[in-house]
Structures are given as C-alpha cells and as structure tokens.
Amino acid sequence: MNLILIFISAAIINNYVLVSFLGICPFIGVSKKLGSAVSMGMATTFVMTITAALAWLLNKYILVGLHLEFLQIVSFILVIASVVQLVEMFIKKVSQPLYEALGIFLPLITTNCAILGLALFLVMKQYNFIESIFFGFGSGVGFTLALIIMAGIREELELADVPEPFKGAPITLIVASCLALAFMGFSGII
Amino acid sequence: MNSTSFLYSLLSMGGIALFFSLLIALANKKLHVEEDPKISLIAECLPGANCGNCGYAGCNNFAEALAGGKSQISNCPVCSPSAREEIARIMGVDVKIGERKVAVVFCQGGDNVATKKAEYRGVKSCFAANLVSGGERACSYGCIGLGDCVAVCLFDAIHMDENNLPVVDRAKCTGCGNCVTACPRGVIELHPISHHVFVLCKNRDVGRIARTVCKRACTGCLLCEKAVNGQGFKVIDNLAVVDHALYTKELVLPTEKCPTKAIVILGNKDEQ
Q1: For chain B, first and last CA: distance in Å?
Q2: Cα dist. B268→B102, B173, B197, B255, B264 in Å?
Q3: DSSP state of A107
Q4: From the CA of B25, how many Å to the nearest CA of chain A?
Q5: B108-162 per-position pLDDT tens digit
Q6: Rounded distance, CA B114 to CA B116, Å?
Q7: B33-98 has which CATH code?
Q8: Nearest CA distance, A9 vs chain B (angstrom)
C-alpha cells in the first residue's frame, strides 16, 4: 500500500513538471509531437528509475557510510550523466530516427533538474531501496504524463486560431500554467 | 574536514568515476554504431566553437549535415579557408571560394539633390514611412533615408551621411544581406567586390519626371549607350544598366557624358 501511495504521489500529486516546476526545458522542448513526447518520457523514466536505485545505493553505502554527505550533488550528477550516456548509446543503436527526433534533448536529460531533484528528494525523504525505485519510476511516469498531455494539447493548438503574439512559446506557457492549476487540485489527497 | 574524509572523498569519487567510465567504455564497444567515417573527420576540421551560426545545434551536427550533403561549409562563418579546403578534400569535391560580395546602395538622392514632396513626422523607419506615404522624398524608387539599413547592420559597415543617404564601408561589409532585406525600396543590392562601375539609380520614370524628383536620377537619356556604342551600357525601361563583365579591369569612367552624374565608380582595384 505504501509503495502504491509513493508511486501515485510522485506521479500525480507531486508531479515534477506541473507541481514542482522541475524539468520545464524538455517539457516545452519535446512536447511538439506526441510520438517523440512518449519516447522522451520513456527515456526519462528509465533514467529516473535507474538513477533512483543507484543514488540510493551510493548514498547509503558510500556517502553516509563514509560521512561524505557533502558530495551528494556531485556524485549524483556523475551517476545521472553516466546513465544518460548509456541510454543515449542504446537509443542510437536501437532506433536512429528516434535518436534524431529527440536530438539535443536526449543528452540534455543530464541537466534535467527533475532527475537531480529526484535523487536529492529521495535522500531527504529517507526512503528505503524499494521505495526509492518506486519513487523514481513514479516520477518518471509523472513526467511522461505531463509531456503527453502537453503534446496532445499542442497538436490541437496547431489547428487553433491563436493570436499572432501568442503563437509558439507564449501560448505553450499559458497552457502549461492552466495544467499546473488543474494538477493543484490533487494536492492534499495523500 | 580532516585528512581521512579528504582521502575518502577522493577515493570514493574516483572509484565511482572509474566504475562508470569502464561501464560506458564497455557499452560503447557493445553498442557501437557504424557511422559515416567522414563525419568525425569533418568534425575535426570544424572550429568546434559550437556557435550555432550554421543553424545546427553544434559543430558535430553540422558535420553530419555536411557529410549528408544537407548543408554547405559556406554556412559556417568561423571556418578558416584552410579548414574549408581540408573538408572539401574529405568530401572529394573542389573548393570554390566565392568572390566576396558587398552591398551597394543604388541611389544618390540625398537631401541635397532629391526633391522633397512633404514633411514626414511619423515613426523613424523606412519600413513605416514606406507604408504610409513613402517618406519625404518625391522619388518613389529611391532611398527613403530613415536608416533601416543602418539599424540592421551587425558589422557597423553602413552609415548615413550628412544628406541622410546610406554609405557602405566596402572594407567592413561582409555581404550578409541584412540591409538588402531591410530596405523596403530594394535600393541596396549585393555585388561582387570586382564590380566598380555602377549606375546608382533605380528610377524608371521617364526622363522628364525623373529629372523633377532628383538631380542625380538616371533619365534614360541614352547618352551613355551612344558614347560606348552599346558596348557596356544598355538603357532598359528608362534606366541605364551596366554590363559588369566589361568594366572590371580599368577603373576609368567609360563616359563622362552622363548629364546627371548617375554613373559612378565605387571602391578601388586593390580591394579584396
């Protein structure tokens, strides 16, 4: 039960993009097409889950064990960068078109603050190993959810009669704020 | 912080880094994708500044586009001539370094010679003035004189003179064409640096009208065409056109006869 709660909390109630406002850059950057949004979401979810597991192990057995908590940010970034590198190689090997569609945003997962946020949060919340993995996976699912919703709306927006000055990024940000408002409705459920 | 935690942090971070680098090295071996070998060769020749001026995210992406034939090395403003030759060699094509082009203002109708038809007090922009009434000057072909071209020049290569007429600094001009697009009248054109003889007028009105709007207008009087026996000048639609192929070597005015001094020599032979 606790695991499900952690999962739902990470995915919806404390959605990284729409509630904590982390990871806005790929949220705006890769939400133009539904297809690439889904794959970006999956790549990020994968990175988040692996990072959560590795960050927990790293924190528990190396950082806390050796009293090196001040190295948290540096070592987490090291983990994230390596995992992203692996994912990038994997995607390039498996699907060249997808690699090109994600473009610069794929290596930029490294600097996605949602993932560093995840690693720091799970230490702060003192989850155990299994909880951490669920937390990471839930966060990834939440990120994917936000990306998919946004991409769906933006595909419709292409057909809408948007006033000239609002075309492109401005209307996207306005839509994002409406989504954030909607997600605020979930707050306090758990 | 004591020396043990210093040592521990050094060791642990080093260990983590080593672990991941080994992992990535292994993955690189396993997940290696055969790429066009040209890409990495080209990428080595590129400046590596990742400035983005070519329109791609970085030099690597540009190298891919070059190898795929989707872009041209001339899109890279930073690349040195030797690197260009090297890339051309990699791609197996001949390098052609295009002649430098500079902007030429095809109008001499400054405030001193152009007839003023009205007073313009609107927004100080040629674009705006052109929308309303065409600005102050009577000539509907020439320069409006409000300096849109000066405003868009990124290289400080075009300036208004005392008669509100833009003057191009041929040494500084990079031929980017910003001013060409900015001019609502299409008065500015890009010409190879070897072109020196110009008819600096765009007015296609018949001579009678052209004379009333500007003292320097080409009236289409045919004197130049007659003076050179039709070799080099041709009057089309009341406007003399230069055949640049004939006037690249000698910088002498082919004819002194132009009554309005619309034919002009710009620059000198030594410029490159």
Answers
A1: 64
A2: 13, 15, 10, 18, 12
A3: G
A4: 10
A5: 988 888 888 888 888 889 999 988 888 889 998 999 999 999 998 888 889 999 9
A6: 6
A7: 1.10.15.40
A8: 31
**pLDDT band at residue B94, thresholds of 50, 70 and 90?**
low
Q: Chain A residue closest to B26 (CA)?
A: A86
Which residue in A68, A73, A77 has the most chain B C-beta atoms within 10 A of its own C-beta, making it the best mutation to test that interface?
A: A68
* Beta-bridge partner residues of B104: B189
The residues near B31 (Cβ < 8 Å, ≥ 6 apart) are A89, A90, A92, A93
Q: Is the pLDDT of residue B197 over 90?
A: no
**Nearest chain B residue (CA) to A104:** B57
DSSP B190-211: EEETT--EEE-----S-HHHHH
Question: Does the pLDDT of residue A139 top 90, yes or no?
Answer: yes
Measure the CA–CA gap between A106 and A99, rounded to whole angstroms: 8
Q: Name every residue whose Cβ is closer than 8 Å to that of residue B23 and which is 6 or more positions away in sequence.
A: A82, A86
Cβ atoms of B232 and B247 closer than 8 Å: yes
- Please report the ipTM that was assigned to this predicted complex: 0.75
All CATH 3.30.70.20 domain ranges of chain B, comma separated, are 101-265
3-state secondary structure of B140: coil
Pick from A78, A93, A96: CB nearest B20: A78
The phi and psi torsions of B47 (rounded to 5 degrees) equal -65, -25
Tell me the percentage of chain B whose pLDDT exceeds 70.
93
Residue with tokens 């010409």: B191
Contact B59, B39 (CB under 8 A): no
Inter-chain residue contact B12 with A75, CB threshold 8 Å: yes
Q: Output the average pLDDT for chain A.
A: 88
As given in the structure block, the two tokens for residue B166 are 């833009």
**Interface contact flag, A90 B28, Cβ < 8 Å:** no
For residues A57 and A129, the answer to whether their CB atoms sit within 8 Å is: yes
Q: Which of A71, A74, A77, A90 to mutate to test the interface with B (most CBs of B within 10 A)?
A: A71
Q: CA–CA separation, B62 vs B67, rounded Å?
A: 9
Q: What tokens were used for B158?
A: 């075009």
Here the tokens at position A11 are 């995915």
User: Considering only the top CATH level, what class is B101-265?
Assistant: alpha beta
Question: Is the Cβ of B34 closer than 8 Å to some Cβ of chain A?
Answer: no
Q: Any residues with CB less than 8 A from the CB of B15 and at least 6 apart, and which? A: none
